[in-house]
Amino acid sequence: MTPKTLAAAWPSWAGRAAVVWSLLYATGAALAAVTGPAFGYSLLGKGTGTGPEAAAAALYGTAAVLAYALLRRPGVRWLSTAAWAVVALCLTSGFAALLSPLHLLFFLSRNQPPVDWAALANQTVAVLGAILWACAALAHRRHALGTCPYCGRHPGDRVPTRPTGRDGWAHGTAPSAAPPHPAPAPRADLAPRAGLVAVAALVPYTALKTAWALGVTPGYTGTGRPGVDPEYTSDLGIRLYDHGVDVTAVLALLGMTLALALTRPWGRRLPRLPLLALGWAGAGALAPFGVFLATVGALAWAGAVDVGMADHAPWVVAVAYGSFSGYGLALARATRAHQRATRRPCERC
Fold this sequence. Notes:
Helices cover about 60% and strands about 0% of the residues. The chain is built from twelve helices and no strands. The chain is globular.
């Protein structure tokens, strides 16, 4: 069996893979709790104490039991719902790995802390676990609903693929009965709207960082230049900033372009897998990160907490940085729409 064939048959092995992965990850966490921070699990407790590692071992051990229940009880729908909680747990453990492409930007900066490769490998394994668990949850739910495990369509939702006559059926065939579940009308307006929402969500951040680079400093009461620290920003980044170009604002523009590519017809001419990978990674990283920043910023705005940014107005964190949450959620919707619109007809159902 080739890797391509094996990947195409994912509904048949995703549940078993989730069991094995959960057992291995829980065993590693247990060993880290006994022997001290190891295998990159120190990221859970910053290398202090074994409580977080022991908690991770217990949580992922429980997840292994849930994965076994998915295999033994394929018709119980609530099990697949519970499986999505494990997906969230895996993404929490591997959250930093979703932001790891930022390490590629280190050439634009200086004095950055060294990369903890053991922790990065552990986080990457956690993200892989999230993918396996998502596949297991999806396969279980589709089996419980009686839909195709590969595409999720109900057998009655199929449409003719051969040329059709006036009656709407393929030439040389006749319908024995009307489809029990006719396909609903497509909601073509939802995907473009998600792209526009994603673009609009990044406008406050992009406008603020660009204004700072141009010398206009709303929301900043300190001295010096906001948005650039000479101790960490490279010479190239400083030169771009001096000419009114903020590197992170450029990245935001690229994020807007990604959202539009996922929701516009011209995006279908681009490679599918890279677009989906960037879309899901960006949504998984920025949505929770933005929710955290929006919450902290709102609390600081209300005077409940101190974020340690006395020279920045509280609304900067809540509105400009918190806008990542709206972008991440809209990007997830756009990525899902692109995935559905560009998938090939299912040959198995």
